[in-house]
Amino acid sequence: MYSFDVENPETVADAVAALGQDEAQALGGGQTLIPTLKQRLAAPSVLVSLSGIAEIKGVSADGGAVVIGGGTTHGTVANEAGAYGALAALAGNIGDPAVRNRGTIGGSLANNDPSACYPAAALGSGATISTNTRSIAADDYFQGMFETALDEGEIITSVSFPIPEAANYQKFEQPASRFALVGVFVAKYADGVRVAVTGASEEGVFRWSEAEAALSSNFSAEALNGLSVSADGMISDLHGSGAYRAHLIGVLTKRAVAAAS
C-alpha cells in the first residue's frame, strides 16, 4: 500500500465535512476497500473511517419495518434483526465470522458488488436507503454493476426494510468467497410479491418481474413452472456460464418460495 491520512469523525456531520477534502474516501468495515488499496486499484489521500459514528449503528423495529443503521455490522444484523427472519438469516451467512464482525450493511450497499447479498434483500424488500441528505427507494438506488444513486460524499445512515408476510433468501455460494454465484430473495407482501436476483446479471441486482406476477397470483413453487430467465446478459466466468446462472435463478426461486411457504 502507500501512505495516506486517516480521520475518525464521531458524527455524520463531521464525516461529511471530512469527505469534502480532495481525494477523500469513506471507510466502512473495509472488507472491499482495504483489498482494493493493497492492489493499488484506488489511491485516496485521506480515509474517513465511519466506524466511530454511533448514530449510524443499531437495529430497531419501527412501524412494521426493521431499520438498520448504515454502520451496523453483518453480525449485529444477524443477531438483532429477528423481527425480519429472512434478513437476519441472510446476514448470518455472509462471508465468515471475521467478515461479519467488520463488514457493514452501508458499506455493502454503497459498493453494490454484483454478487453481494444485501442488494437482493434491499431490492426484494422494497427497502428505503436513507443518507445524510435524502431517502432513496431501492428501485431507484441500484443503477448497475458497482453503480448506485449515491452522490460523491453521500453517506448511508440507515436502511428501512418493510417486514413481509413471508420471505426467504436462497444463495448458491461460490465456495472460496461465499459470495453468491446466484442468490434469490423472495418477499410476499399484502400488495404483491417481490423477487430480487443477485450474482447473475452483468447489470447487477435485478427484479424478476415474470416470477413476481406469477407468485402474486399464486404463492407456490408450482406457479413458476414454465418460467425461465434468458441467459442473455448473464455473467459467464470460470465459476459458471450465463446459461447455468439463468437456470439457477429458476431453481433458487422455487426453493425460496417453498421455504417461505
TrEMBL record:
It comes from the Bacteria. InterPro entries: CO_DH_flav_C, CO_DH_flav_C_dom_sf, Diverse_Substr_Oxidored, FAD-bd_PCMH, FAD-bd_PCMH-like_sf, FAD-bd_PCMH_sub1, FAD-bd_PCMH_sub2, Mopterin_DH_FAD-bd. Keywords: FAD, Flavoprotein, Oxidoreductase. It is an enzyme of class 1 (oxidoreductase). GO terms for molecular function: anaerobic carbon-monoxide dehydrogenase activity; FAD binding. Residues 1-166 form the FAD-binding PCMH-type domain. Its EC number is 1.2.7.4. PANTHER family: XANTHINE DEHYDROGENASE SUBUNIT C-RELATED. This is Carbon monoxide dehydrogenase medium chain.
